Each structure stands twice: as C-alpha cells, then as structure tokens.
C-alpha cells in the first residue's frame, strides 16, 4: 500500500524563491513543481509514496505572530493531519521563523516548541489503523553569513548577529528533542544551505540536495518498519 508523507514546514517547504519576487511585493514567487524539494522527493521515491506539501511562508511552531496572522503551526497541525489521514510519516521542519526576536529568538526554547509539535502528532490517531504517524524531526538549514547585506530587514528581525549563531545550535537541541520524543531526526544543514540571494531560503540546487537526503532517510525509516 502506498505510504502517505506530510511535509509540514515554512517557506523552505512551500518553495519560496527570492529571485522570483516581484518588486512591488504583490505576491510571493514560488519555485515550480520539479524544483521544490517536496516534488523532487516525490519523483525520487516513486509511486509507492504520496508526498503532501504543507508548507506556509512565515509559519512558526507554537507561537502567534502579530504581523503574520494564522501562522501558528500548532493550531493547524492536527486539522491538517485529520484531513490527510491516514498519514504514515510527518516530516516536520520548523524553527527559522521562531528565531525572530518578537517570537522567541532562543534556540533551546525553539527546540522544545518543536517537541510540542512532535508530541501532538504522536498523541493522535491519524496514522494507519488509528495509530499515530511516524515523525521525522528536522533541524532547519543555517542562516547564511550574508544575511546582513542580503536581507537587512530580516537580519534585524532575527536578532542581527545572533541569527546565525542561534541557527548553528539548531541541530544540537533538535536532536536532543528527537531523542526525548523517540522520533527520527535529520539535520538539514548537513545537506543544504541557503542560496546567495537572501541568505535564508534554499535555491534550486539546494532544494534538490535536501530532497536526496530526505529520500535516503525515508527509505531507511520504512525499511526499518518492515
């Protein structure tokens, strides 16, 4: 039977393409299918899997953001899984927007928030035969060194010089949270990095690199379950 995988994340799951943004900011430019890591993952895994894209620009883990309404990941997570049930695996990659100083800006707290999401998934019955889905918790890619010059407004939002330093701590704390929650873990920063346009979002080449890493991990997860 085909495996259903929900990819729940922010703009790097949605496919935000900084080089495709219009000057008047009238809409968000998005990489097309075949470029986004989610659709590349679908191609790599084949017809035995169904990849569901659930990315949203500016999504946080558990916090409301007054400047971006309806971005709280926790409030949408369970309805999302109810919609797509039965779900075999959730790939959960959030945290970068939580670096904003008005939201959290504190990496250990951000990792704990990710753990809240994992536990929300594990406490549900949205998996096969009324069980909970498996969870792959992903620590996000790093904030790029060029963020200050590439995107100064976002640089300020993310705590200026603390942005990259805090993102470097993602893997340590997210891995510890995954161990505590007894779920799978992947460090996205080992495989991909932000593109040069805004030093925050994946470019086309890095979408593919991340898809390769996810494909290998997904095969490992389901091979272990056989």
From TrEMBL:
<keyword id="KW-0378">Hydrolase</keyword>
<dbReference type="GO" id="GO:0016787">
    <property type="term" value="F:hydrolase activity"/>
</dbReference>
<protein>
    <submittedName>
        <fullName>SGNH/GDSL hydrolase family protein</fullName>
    </submittedName>
</protein>
<feature type="domain" description="SGNH hydrolase-type esterase">
    <location>
        <begin position="7"/>
        <end position="208"/>
    </location>
</feature>
<dbReference type="InterPro" id="IPR013830">
    <property type="entry name" value="SGNH_hydro"/>
</dbReference>
<dbReference type="InterPro" id="IPR036514">
    <property type="entry name" value="SGNH_hydro_sf"/>
</dbReference>
<dbReference type="Pfam" id="PF13472">
    <property type="entry name" value="Lipase_GDSL_2"/>
</dbReference>
């Amino acid at each position: 039977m085909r495996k259903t995988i929900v990819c729940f994340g922010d703009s790097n799951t949605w496919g935000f393409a900084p080089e495709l943004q219009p000057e008047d900011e009238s809409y968000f430019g998005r990489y097309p299918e075949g470029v986004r890591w989610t659709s590349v993952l679908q191609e790599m895994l084949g017809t035995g899997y169904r990849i569901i894209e659930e990315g949203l620009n500016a999504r946080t883990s558990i916090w409301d953001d007054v400047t971006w309404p309806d971005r709280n990941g926790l409030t949408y997570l369970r309805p999302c899984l109810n919609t797509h049930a039965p779900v075999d695996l959730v790939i959960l990659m959030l945290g970068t927007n939580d670096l904003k100083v008005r939201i959290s800006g504190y990496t250990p707290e951000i990792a704990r928030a990710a753990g809240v999401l994992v536990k929300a998934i594990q406490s549900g019955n949205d998996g096969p035969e009324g069980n909970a889905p498996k969870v792959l918790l992903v620590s996000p890619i790093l904030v790029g060194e060029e963020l200050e010059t590439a995107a100064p407004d976002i640089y300020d939002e993310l705590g200026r010089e603390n942005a990259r330093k805090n993102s470097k701590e993602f893997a340590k704390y997210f891995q510890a949270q995954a161990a505590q929650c007894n779920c799978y873990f992947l460090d996205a920063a080992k495989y991909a990095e932000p593109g040069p346009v805004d030093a925050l979002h994946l470019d086309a080449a890095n979408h593919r690199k991340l898809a390769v890493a996810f494909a290998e991990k997904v095969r490992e997860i389901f091979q272990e379950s056989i």
